Amino acid sequence: MSNIQPLLGQVAIVTGAAKGIGRAIAVRLAESGADIVVADIDVANMPVTAQAIEAHGRRAVTLEADMRKESDIDRMVDQALQSFGRLDIVVNNAGINAPGGFLGVSRQDIRSVFDTDLIGPFMLSQRAAREMIKAGIRGRIVCISSIHSVVPHYCPHYSAAKIGLEQLVIDMALELAPYGIRANAIRPGGIAIRGRLETDSPDVANPNIPYEGRNGLPSEVAALAHFLVTEDSHYITGATVTIDGALSRMTYSALARRRRLAEEQHDLGFPIHIPGPVL
Questions:
Q1: Residue 109 and residue 114: Cα distance in Å, rounded?
Q2: Is residue 174's pLDDT more than 50?
Q3: Does residue 143 sit in helix, strand or coil?
Q4: Is 179 a catalytic residue?
């Protein structure tokens, strides 16, 4: 295995890969040598991801797929096997939210969010793991969660689906460990995505985030995903890793105190990011 391309000869399915974090992950894995099944409901943007993958000398297959449809989940795995002959990695990135607090959200929206964010990843991971076991492949599964699994934001259906996803990762890790298959989750927060497209613009300032006073970049989430699917993390499974610049560690009172301290230090002549107003 090449040290420069540790995923050379491997195949990954990345859902929600047409843009944003999913695109960044797909391209990062391709840089490392993997061929990619680019799956999304966004047909218009998938070719951009495919072109970026091919620019790194890897193969890409695009597939319109809806995580709410079991037939589409089967087609993703079938496509990987038919096009590339194997499946090593699944990144469950596709996710949706629907506005509405506990008293207002509809049953239809609850079902749609759960089907996309929890049940779909469950079924895709299950089908993929069965194929990995049959082929004797020490596969890796990564699920993209959210800090809103633990930090409320008044969309309880979304939060419930994401915390369920993290528990699913624990159960998968335990059951699949005897087969050498690893499962982990990433819990991002405050990631700069404009119009759902990746941006590396320096204009990502967010004074409410403790670390560097900025939002994170999709490329930073992609770097973490890459770590979790390479041998550098071979003893990590069943984990949920937070990447949010310590945003989820901030409480209402902590944010207010941090603002006061920042203002005091600024008055003393120390340059520091001052958090925005406490809402």
A1: 9
A2: yes
A3: strand
A4: no
HSE-CB at 155 with a 13 A cutoff on CA atoms is: 19
Where exactly are the structural domains of the chain? 11-245, 250-279
Average pLDDT over residues 105-128: 97
d(CA 178, CA 9): 24
Helices (H), the chain: 20-31, 46-54, 70-84, 107-114, 120-135, 156-176, 218-229, 252-267
Give the sign of the dihedral formed by CA 14, CA 18, CA 24, CA 30: positive
Amino acid identity of residue 225, one-letter, is: A
Contact 28, 21 (CB under 8 A): no
Per-residue model confidence (pLDDT) at position 207 = 83
> Which one is catalytic: 154, 158, 211, 252?
158
11-245, which class in CATH?
Answer: alpha beta
Mean pLDDT of 65-84: 98
Retrieve residue 222's tokens.
């992609």
pLDDT of residue 62: 98
Distance CA 188, CA 214 (A): 14
